[in-house]
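Q: Could you fold this chain for me?
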Amino acid sequence: METKRKCLRHFFLVLSFPLLLAACQDMKPLGGPPPLDLLGAPAPVTAAVRTIVITPQTKWVNVEGGEIVRFVVGNQSFAWNFIGWGIDSFELNRVAPPGLLPQKITAYVSPDPRYQNGLFRLM
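A: Sure. Below is the predicted structure, expressed as structure tokens.
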């Protein structure tokens, strides 16, 4: 009886391995860029609380989680609502309209001050 159990256990392990491989095939590799929904969301430019002008010399911007920022590039602009949960930096080009930013710009995101020690604080 014990031998039969061992054989069955081995049989199920052998069968489950290809299923496990198939399930993992669509997973993204670790260390890749974070999904866009973790970076924040587009916002209307009228909702922005701060404006940052992007010039050809701009290499990085500092923003705060929970902040809606309007970015001005020449005579065009866009706004982004930064979440700031666990993402401390990313390429701003990922969320800007295609071709708008003249060069790679890194957005450094500080934590949302309303969330300290895991608690939500109203300002």
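A (continued): The chain has a mean pLDDT of 80.
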